[in-house]
């Protein structure tokens, strides 16, 4: 079965959205999942599409950026489709995993994404080590620590630890830690 996925980030992109749907229909796609949402947030129709496809199906998208927000995301989608024995066709790149060449191109994209990720992590480690050596890196402050002054203010106003925790969306143990630190510094 040919299955399509069409997406634009906003409803203002109606022409591009309609063009995607029309291209998919011209190819004989039997089921089209479509949505007009940002690639960054939740995409229920993409999830429904990935759940729907079965062994032997072909998922068709007009452009890779309509399906995936990054090469890492492409790796995830590609792997998920591979496990289900579903092929993928990306029209603008000429990727078609039903052919040996198309499969090789998709695997190259996946390999490059993995390589990029390893390089990024290595550069990050080096940067952190240099910053630590220079005394400039301390990591991020835990969220609750940034709220300690509010904890103290609410406690002084008569709020109980459970109420403070709920109001500030932190744990009760963080509230007690803040109160204990306030006592030792006072």
Walkthrough of the structure:
With 186 residues, the chain is an alpha/beta fold. A five-stranded mixed sheet has the order 2-1-3-4-5, sandwiched between helices. The protein has two domains: 2-113, Resolvase, N-terminal catalytic domain (Rossmann fold, 3-Layer(aba) Sandwich); 143-185. The chain has helices at 14-26, 44-52, 64-67, 71-83, 100-133, 143-146, 148-156, 161-168, 172-185, and strands at 2-8, 31-36, 58-61, 87-90, 95-96. Helix content is 58%, strand content 12%. It is elongated, with a radius of gyration of 25 Å.
List the helices and strands and how they pair.
Elements: E1 2-8, H1 14-26, E2 31-36, H2 44-52, E3 58-61, H3 64-67, H4 71-83, E4 87-90, E5 95-96, H5 100-133, H6 143-146, H7 148-156, H8 161-168, H9 172-185
Parallel strand pairs: 1-2, 1-3, 3-4
Antiparallel strand pairs: 4-5
Helix pairs in contact: 4-5, 7-8, 7-9, 8-9
| Strand count | 5
Q: Which runs of at least 5 residues are low in confidence (pLDDT < 50)? A: none
Proportion in helices? 55-70%
CATH superfamily of the largest domain: Resolvase, N-terminal catalytic domain
CATH architecture of the largest domain: 3-Layer(aba) Sandwich
CATH class wording of the largest domain: Alpha Beta
Structural class by SSE content:
alpha/beta
Oligomer: single chain
DSSP strand content: 5-15%
**Globular, elongated, flat, extended or rod-shaped: what is the shape?**
elongated
CATH topology term of the largest domain: Rossmann fold
Main β-sheet, spatial strand arrangement? 2-1-3-4-5
Number of domains: 2
- In round numbers, the mean pLDDT is 87
Give the helices and strands as they follow along the chain.
Answer: EHEHEHHEEHHHHH
Q: What distance lies between the first and last C-alpha atoms, to the nearest angstrom?
A: 71 Å
Number of helices: 9
Largest sheet: 5 strands, mixed
